[in-house]
């Protein structure tokens, strides 16, 4: 952070409609939510592109029962973009509310049920999400990355113990990959060549900036690079690209993976994709030179900014917004 500049200082508290750069943020779950909570301070021209491979919890149950795309990550993205008024915050909290009971509603989020109902009535996933966005006064738009629900499978290297060598196992399902105790070597989508939503491809190609991460690396960030039309748009867009790294390694799917290894694992799954900036918190980087080298291999400059909330493993929305403001404006100052 630049000397004398408070976290979030100068961030817009009341953006006018149509202001700010056109930004596409790709990811899922809490990581994408963190990006969106930051970006909403900088622009209302935001498009969130959300993974649709979740098969756990409320989303997994609705997906299995109704044959729909998992709504949970989409709901979280909409909530993160809500209008900062009593109306917007109230509806955000309603969407995020989960039922507590001993019956079949236990664990379901209200927003998941609302989205599922709109999809059934309208027969169009994007129209349903746009309606929820209008209810929230969302500062931006939320889109599923594909037109169909997806599954994730991974090759996972598992320790064989003292008496046998390591072996590679096939693990299928987002929840299973996310909680594996092995080392993820490669991830794939099923079906292998899923269609991208045309609105997503259009948004990426028209963007000023594309932001990937933070989030669960193999199950929320990388899947965007495995949808052929979306991957092509990410490679070919004239937009600049920013990769936001996590504050810590995931306890399971990326356990022990260094920040540099995160960058290299991602680029290995997306041949030809180049970045302009890799953004990281200095407290999360033990070897700055190694990470700077990995960023350079991806065509990017490493930008270090304090974005952590205290000593937690949570991004501070205003600190992240201040860092992203510097990235989007090119005011990088101290870089590695």
Automatic annotation (TrEMBL):
Entry-linked PROSITE patterns: PROKAR_LIPOPROTEIN
Highest taxon in the source lineage: Bacteria
GO molecular function, one term: LPPG:FO 2-phospho-L-lactate transferase activity
Subcellular localization, as worded in the UniProt entry: Cytoplasm
GO biological process entries: regulation of cell shape
Keywords: Cytoplasm
Any single Pfam family the record assigns to this protein: CofD
Keyword Cytoplasm annotated: yes
Keyword Transmembrane part of the UniProt annotation: no
Main location per the UniProt record: cytoplasm
GO cellular component: cytoplasm
Function (record text): Required for morphogenesis under gluconeogenic growth conditions.
Family: Belongs to the gluconeogenesis factor family.
Protein's recorded name: Putative gluconeogenesis factor
Provenance organism: Quadrisphaera granulorum
């Amino acid at each position: 952070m630049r000397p004398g500049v408070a976290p979030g200082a100068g961030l817009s508290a009341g953006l006018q409609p149509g202001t700010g750069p056109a930004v596409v943020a790709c990811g899922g779950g809490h990581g994408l939510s963190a990006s969106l909570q930051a970006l909403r301070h900088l622009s209302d021209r935001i498009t969130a592109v959300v993974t649709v491979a979740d098969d756990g919890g409320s989303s997994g149950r609705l997906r299995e029962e109704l044959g729909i795309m998992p709504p949970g990550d989409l709901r979280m993205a909409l909530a993160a973009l809500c209008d900062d008024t009593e109306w917007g915050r109230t509806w955000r909290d309603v969407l995020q509310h989960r039922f507590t009971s001993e019956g079949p509603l236990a664990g379901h989020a209200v927003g998941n049920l609302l989205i599922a109902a709109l999809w059934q009535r309208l027969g169009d996933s994007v129209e349903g999400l746009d309606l929820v966005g209008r209810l929230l006064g969302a500062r931006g738009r939320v889109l599923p990355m594909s037109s169909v629900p997806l599954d994730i499978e991974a090759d996972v290297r598992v320790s064989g113990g003292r008496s046998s060598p390591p072996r590679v196992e096939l693990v299928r399902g987002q929840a299973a990959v996310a909680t594996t105790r092995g080392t993820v070597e490669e991830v794939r989508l099923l079906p292998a060549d899923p269609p991208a939503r045309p609105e997503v491809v259009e948004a990426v190609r028209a963007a000023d900036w594309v932001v990937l991460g933070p989030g669960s690396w193999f199950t929320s960030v990388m899947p965007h690079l495995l949808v052929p039309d979306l991957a092509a748009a990410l490679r070919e867009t004239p937009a600049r690209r920013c990769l936001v790294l996590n504050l810590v390694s995931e306890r399971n799917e990326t356990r022990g993976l260094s920040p540099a290894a995160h960058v290299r694992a991602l680029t290995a799954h997306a041949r030809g994709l180049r970045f302009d900036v890799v953004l990281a918190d200095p407290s999360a980087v033990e070897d700055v030179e190694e990470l700077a080298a990995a960023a350079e291999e991806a065509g990017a400059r490493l930008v270090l900014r304090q974005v952590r909330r205290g000593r937690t493993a949570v991004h501070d929305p205003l600190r992240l917004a201040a860092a992203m403001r510097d990235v989007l404006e090119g005011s990088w100052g101290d870089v590695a």
